[in-house]
Amino acid sequence: MDENRGDEIRGTAGGTAPVPLSVLDLVTVGQGRTATQALRTSVDIAKLAESRGFHRFWVAEHHSMPGVASSSPAVILAHLAAHTERIRLGSGGVMLPNHAPLVIAEQFGTLEAMAPGRVDLGLGRAPGTDGATAAALRRTDRLNEGAEDFPQQLAELTRFLDDDFPDGHPYARIHAVPGPVQATSPGGVQSPSRPPVWLLGSSGFSARLAGVLGLPFAFAHHFSARNTVPALDLYRESFKPSAVLDAPYALIGVAALAAEDEREARRQVLTGALSMVRLRTGRPGLVPTPEEAEAYDFSPMEREFVDGWLKDIVHGTPDEVRTGLDDLAKRTGADELMITANAHGGEARLRSYELIADAYGLPGAV
User: Please, is 179 exposed, middle or buried when counting C-beta atoms within 10 Å of its C-beta (0-12, 13-18, 19+)?
Assistant: First the structure.
C-alpha cells in the first residue's frame, strides 16, 4: 500500500470524539439572504472547522435548487483553499456522470496545485438534481446510461489523474494538467501526490464498487439512514486491499445541529425539514426562517414525513448531540463522522459546530 495515500485518507480523533469529525457544507441560502452571504458563511465555517480540529471540509454538487448554492464544487474549493491552511478540502461529491473525466482531473489537479496534499475527490453517480436539469447538464436524455457507465468513467478519470493510459489507448497522448506529466517533462518538477478518490453513495452500488477497488467510501446517512448499516456491511465484505488502502475506511454524512437549548435546536432543524418537504413535492426554494417553519400548516402526510425526517437528525443541546453522535458511531462502526448542519441562518450553523467542538473538547476553544 502507498502509505502516503492512506495517511491522506485516515483522520485522527480529537478530544473525546470517538472518531474523527469533519464537515459537509451545502452552502445553503436562507430567505432574505444572498448567495454571496452563503458563500461567506461557508468560509467562516471552514475557518472555524480548521481552528477547532475538524479533519476535513467537503462541499456537494447540487443544481437547480435555489436554497443550495453549491453547483460548482471546484470553484468553491478554490475559494476555501485561499482562506485556509491545513484542513483537508474536498467534494462530497462531484457527480461524475455530469462531467467529462478529463475536466474533473484538470479541475482537481489545479486544486491540488493550489493546496498540495489536502484535496479530496469524492465522486457520486447520481445527478444531484432532477432529470430535466441532468439532461441539460449532460446534453442528453439518456440518463440511465450515465449511471451504468460509472465504473468505466471512474477508471478513465483515475488514469487521467495518474497519467498512465497504456500505449495504444486513444487517450495515451492526452494529459491532465496540472498533473504527473509535468514531472516527466524535461526539467519538470511535480508534486508526487494527487487527490485521493472517494466513492460516495446512498445505496449498495457504490459501496460494493468502493470495496472491490479498495477505495474509501462515504455514505449519505443524512438522507438515507435506513440503508446505512447494510451499505457499510456490504462495503466491508467486498473490500479488497489496494495500493490506496489496506483496510476499509468509511465515513458517514450526519445531519446534526446543537443549540443552547433543545427547543431552539428543534426550531432550527425544522427549517431544513420544511425545505425537504418542498423539494420532495416539486417546490424547491430558499431555506425558510424558523418562524415560517413553526407557523407552517403541515398536512398529515407532510407531518408524517417531517417526523420521520427529524428522527434521523441528531439535534438538541450539546450534550444530547454528543450522545447521539457517539451512539451513531458505535452502531454503524463508521471510521469518521461528517457533520452537516442545515438551518436558515449562518449564525446558527456556526454556533452548532462550535458547541459540538466544545462538547468533545476539541482544541482551539476561546
Answer: buried
